[in-house]
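User: quick one, fold this
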Amino acid sequence: MITFMENTNTIHFEGDKPEWFYAVGEKYRGPFKAAEIYQKLQSKELSWIDYLYREKEGKWIRVADHDVFKPMQAAPPSPKPNLAPPPPPVADEIKWFLYQNDAQTGPYSTTELRRLVQSSQVIDGAFVWQEAFSGWKLANEVNELKVEVKPSMPTPPPVPVSKAFEQNQSQKQTQSQTPSDKRTAPRKPLVAQVYATNLSALITGICRDISVGGMQVLTDHLPGPVGTSIRLNVTPPSDTGLSPFVAEGVLVRILEDQRGFSFRFTQISEDSKHSIERYIS
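Assistant:
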């Protein structure tokens, strides 16, 4: 039986007698009483990881594991309180889907979708959806976007010009066009999500048309000047029959309004080429 002496720093062990030995390196010391062993623990002469021997057990036992001294160890720390739940997702984490021109693209963050709207890549009559909605909503009626959707306008007829001026402009365009910029393959409209990288930044955009040799991408962040090498990750809608693909190439032309570029493939898989050919034909 162990009794703590009131107002003292000692413990009374009932029937205590000198029967304890403790190890010191390869030697041992003793015999000591249990009260003396406890005092040595208090004075740091012994630690809880040292070993004790008593004839009753007939083997060396670590102090911390011995039934006589185990109750004297400090109580384990109380369990940690339950952690607070993580903060709710911020608005930019909301994933949006866009439906326009008979094609669905996404998901987009709020920032990405606003950028598409601001760059006039979302037409009047386009629909958007996110998990908080019960159904699709017109993009220009969603308050979260907080931008005015530019209506799609019919293309005006060309301004009348003289034949001589028209020929002069055609010659200038031919002279300024590099061989890599000339279209050598038929193109077909395609609305597809595009991620472009120049190895220092990631840019999102929308494909406008595609050919076996390249594609045109609409975006409000250009990956660089003409001649910049970039890598594209393209995700076409499933109803086009085109599989997602990755292509490497070079930027060959900046659109006049600075909101897009033309891209020529320099590396694309044969399967992706055949898939594009089938789509165009």
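User: anything notable?
Assistant: DSSP finds four helices and 16 strands in the chain.
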